[in-house]
Write a structure and sequence with these properties.
The complex is a heterodimer of chains A (about 170) and B (about 90). Chain A is an alpha+beta fold. In chain A, about 20% of the residues lie in helices and about 35% in strands. Chain A has a single domain, classed as Umud Fragment, subunit A (Ribbon), CATH 2.10.109.10. The longest helix of chain A has 13 residues. The radius of gyration of chain A is 17 Å and the shape is globular. Chain B is of the alpha+beta class. The chains are: A alpha+beta (about 170), B alpha+beta (about 90).
Chain lengths: ~170, ~90
């Protein structure tokens, strides 16, 4: 999941001389984590298909804020570390571990199987909005986002067919 | 002119980069990469007022290039700073 970013051919790049700079994931997310820990929100373009249709590979950006340790709810999208990788997935279930600590069971919206477990200390940030290439923002605290998220999670049994249709209509 | 103090050069994947601060925080969809001479100018003039002529002087003294070429490059560098909104208001 390399990140493509603008960078200059010579001197300082601007809007007129863009090119892609491939940054290794661990380096990129190290920078994201550092920035979030410093209290600043971070925006980056999503790579990968696991959060489709909410986030489209290479098109939509996500804005994340620092995770302050609060109890998270099902439906929230989090960036967390999982088996040495950084994952941006949605919480589908919350559970309490035997010691009382919260466990978050996550899954990609575009995935049909496979859940991950996120512990609070592995959470780096919480998604606050999605931004399309045209700049249109969709806040994660809006009614429409909550409704769409709830519906998508509820329709898991027919997700395979929904994805098949959506992939033709919404790219 | 002066480089805005809210921008810091960071090293990422062997590149010296500046991350833009947008209305949604650190905008990592647009990362500005500095080459060697651009980094030199950034480090030289960071935190102080300067003009394109000062940047040209620095280039001449650092790289021993023609004054005319240095002035051309210095103006281009300043224009890029302005275009990328890296200058303090």
């Amino acid at each position: 999941m390399p990140q493509n970013n603008d960078s200059g051919r010579s001197g300082i790049s601007g809007m007129s001389d863009r090119r892609s700079l491939v940054i290794p994931n661990d380096v990129f997310f190290g920078q994201v984590a550092e920035t979030l820990a410093g209290g600043s929100p971070v925006t980056f373009i999503v790579k990968g298909y696991s959060m489709y249709p909410f986030m489209r590979n290479g098109k939509d950006s996500v804005c994340l804020e620092w995770y302050d340790g609060r109890a998270l709810s099902a439906g929230e999208v989090i960036l967390f570390q999982y088996r040495g990788k950084h994952v941006l997935h949605r919480i589908y279930k919350t559970e309490a571990a035997p010691d009382g600590a919260m466990l978050y069971r996550t899954m990609g919206d575009g995935n049909l199987r496979g859940m991950e477990t996120a512990l609070p200390h592995s959470v780096l940030g919480v998604m606050t909005k999605r931004i399309t290439p045209s700049g249109k923002e969709w806040g994660c605290n809006t009614f429409s986002w909550h409704l769409a998220s709830w519906l998508w999670m509820r329709l898991f049994r027919v997700r395979r067919w929904l994805l098949a249709v959506l992939r033709r209509l919404y790219r | 002119m002066k480089i805005s103090e809210k921008y810091k050069v960071r090293e990422m994947a062997g590149q010296h980069v500046v991350i833009i601060q947008g209305r949604n925080g650190a905008d990592m969809t647009k990362i500005i990469s500095l080459n060697e001479s651009s980094l030199f100018l950034w480090n030289t003039f960071s935190g102080r007022d300067f003009e394109a002529a000062d940047a040209a002087d620095a280039l001449v003294s650092q790289y021993g290039i023609d004054r005319e070429l240095a002035e051309h490059d210095a103006v281009a560098w300043c224009d890029k700073l302005r275009e990328c909104r890296l200058l303090a208001e």
